[in-house]
Amino acid sequence: MSSFSAINADLHCHSVVSDGTLTPEELAQRAHANGVQLWSLTDHDELGGQERAKAAAAALKMDYLAGVEISVTWMGQTIHIVGLGIDHQDAGILDGLKRTREGRGDRAKQMAEQLLKVGIPGAYEGALHYAGNHDLISRTHFARFLVEQGVCKDTEQVFKNYLVEDKPGFVPHRWASLDQAIHWIRQAGGVAVIAHPGRYKLNAIQRDELFKFFKDHGGAGIEVITGSHSPDQYQEYGKIAKQYGFLASRGSDFHDPSESHIDLGVLPLLPEHLTPVWSVFH
Ligand code: AMP
Ligand code: MN
Ligand code: MN
Ligand code: MN
Q1: What pLDDT score does 254 carry?
Q2: Domains along the sequence of the chain with CATH
Q3: d(CA 16, CA 133)
Q4: Model pLDDT, residue 3
Q5: Bridge partners, 115 (sequence order)
Q6: Mutation test residue for ligand 1: of 159, 171, 259, the one with most atoms within 8 Å of CB
Q7: What atom in ligand 1 is closest to the CA of residue 259?
Q8: What is the number of the ligand 1 atom nearest to the C-alpha of 253?
Q9: pLDDT at position 2, please?
Q10: Which residues are within 5 Å of ligand 2 (an ion), measured at CB?
Q11: CA of 11 to the centre of ligand 4 (A)
């Protein structure tokens, strides 16, 4: 089992098909160059890059799992669910994701209206210019435009000051429900994983409710080693994986060479006492 945990798997990253800046081919090459042995492209709410990612991985002889990161609203909060090992041509998940993407355009227009009120014009067109896929205009694209405009020095500062709750560019949005997202992933043959659990603002009771609800509805894993966790959180979520009987996942959440502080595959290996999510695919 030990060598099994020790493989360099990176099961979370984004391409130009969602809010990343590299193509699926560029990501495959970068992952391979960094020693990744098992890779997954997990664009937000979109499977349009899967064919290209799979082909690029095959050309490099790197193992690949088709993936996605689904935006979910649970108890008024946005939660991200990664689906791994799905059939990327499954009609059910394709339809569900299409519906999840709807509303991003209107939300973006509302965000731009709010930004205009605080003296930032042209944000809708500006953000759209950064969106490689116009169906998937996201806050990240607004963040890049605001940096370009000199409003903030980096995207991190834009999120802090503009694009989160109670800030002038934030528009609440209702995404898929948690049980729907798990269902789409499972019926497409995949495994559902809670992305970066340490990022959600949940108290201990809410967190327990989330994990129990997720498990009761067929969810199987959580990210333990992710670019979003601190070393303390690697420990904390390793324990939680054991406690709830979750499979453990590992992924950088890489978006862009200069924005992302963790590169593809460059993060600690999964602790050996955990059962890796990839164990179900071998
Ligand atoms: P959206 O799906 O449009 O709400 O955008 C969510 C995306 O914004 C996430 O997937 C991240 O890529 C990015 N994001 C969210 N919070 C932050 C943050 N604090 N700093 C940088 N990027 C963030
Ligand atoms: Mn993102
Ligand atoms: Mn996420
Ligand atoms: Mn992500």
Answers
A1: 98
A2: 4-101+178-280 (3.20.20.140), 104-161 (1.10.150.650)
A3: 7
A4: 57
A5: none
A6: 159
A7: 21
A8: 12
A9: 44
A10: 19
A11: 10
pLDDT at residue 5, rounded to an integer: 82
Could you give the CA distance from residue 146 to residue 157 in angstroms, rounded to a whole number? Answer: 10
Supply the pTM of this predicted model. 0.98
- Amino acid identity for residue 96 in this structure: G
Let me know: does 146 contact 158? Beta carbons within 8 Å.
Answer: yes
pLDDT averaged over consecutive 10-residue blocks of the chain (282 residues)? 78 98 98 98 98 98 98 97 98 98 97 98 98 97 98 98 97 97 98 98 96 98 98 98 98 97 97 97 85
At residue 6, the pLDDT reads 86
Cβ < 6 A, ligand 1 pocket:
19, 44, 71, 138-140, 155-156, 159, 255
